[in-house]
Design a protein that fits this description.
The chain is an all-alpha fold and 288 residues long. The chain has 14 helices and no strands.
Length: 288
């Protein structure tokens, strides 16, 4: 731990000691990297702006992530800026790189601040990173209920008041592990996951249902053999298809009236019940 802190301090000191670049020198380094892939030029360009990375990373320390990780992510954004920078636009590299550095750090925070993924839209990001500041600013004024404060923040950021309330709840407390033990007074030493109720059937019930289901399908297939071709078609179209056909549509297909289709269906179902009762008296209830 001491070694890690020492190395980080040396890194910060080196970044702060790096010489500033004049506008023309900065432009020449950027052109050398873009046109000739000169790694020495890239190193000089990025080294001169690492103090910018450290300064931006320090602004996000209150999110509870290691500063060294934030600096590393900011460096990724700095390299991205160097790859995309266009010197001919006559804009200082620091101005252009600031956006990429901040975006890279913010993206890292959103991915790692919580195991629960939140919204990634621009409005949700703005809410996540500005909620604390806006709440503190409004709290310095006249006291107002949370609902009114949430409505004011929602209007400022461009989201709904419900989104503000949800984000406020997320930022109010840390993630809680399901494996974390509860106090003896609450659970006798158990973990949170021990109190989660699963609505799925038990394993033995699921296996029994699979076995019984396969058995019933076999019974039904055997019973269907007692039907004539027309009876079988009507039963399949009316009872076994996902969307049962109407009596009228089947009558048109078979060239008979819908009342005749109903009669044939009734007779076929009666034959099925009798066939099932002969083979499995106890199992026919599943089909009735």
């Amino acid at each position: 731990m001491v070694k890690h802190v020492s190395s980080r301090r040396r890194f910060v000191r080196a970044a702060m000691d790096a010489p500033y670049l004049e506008r023309e020198e900065e432009r020449e380094l950027a052109i050398s990297w873009r046109e000739r892939q000169d790694e020495a030029a890239l190193h000089r360009l990025t080294s001169a702006h690492m103090r910018l990375v450290i300064a931006l990373a320090a602004r996000f320390r209150h999110f509870g992530l290691p500063l060294s990780d934030l600096i590393q992510e900011g460096h990724v954004g700095l390299l991205e800026a160097a790859a995309r920078f266009e010197p001919e636009r006559d804009v200082r590299f620091s101005t252009y790189a600031t956006w990429w550095i901040r975006a890279s750090i913010q993206d890292y925070i959103l991915r790692n601040w919580s195991i629960v993924r939140g919204g990634t839209s621009s409005s949700q990001k703005a809410l996540f990173f500005n909620l604390r500041r806006l709440r503190a600013k409004l709290a310095r004024g006249a006291q107002q209920p949370d609902a009114a404060m949430f409505a004011e923040i929602a209007e400022a950021v461009g989201v709904s008041a419900a989104d503000v309330a949800l984000m406020n709840a997320r930022l109010s407390g840390p993630d809680m592990s399901l494996n974390a033990p509860l106090s003896d007074a609450e659970s006798g030493g158990g973990a949170r996951q021990d109190f989660l109720v699963c609505g799925a059937p038990l394993q033995d019930e699921a296996v029994a249902e699979d076995i019984d289901g396969a058995r019933r399908v076999g019974w039904l297939r055997e019973a269907l053999r007692c039907l004539s071709a027309r009876e079988l078609r009507i039963v399949q179209e009316r009872r076994l298809a996902e969307q049962g056909a109407t009596l009228e549509s089947l009558g048109e297909q078979l060239g008979i009236s819908k009342e005749r289709v109903r009669q044939i269906e009734s007779r076929a179902l009666d034959k099925l019940r009798k066939a099932l009762l002969r083979r499995q008296p106890q199992g026919v209830a599943a089909f009735v």
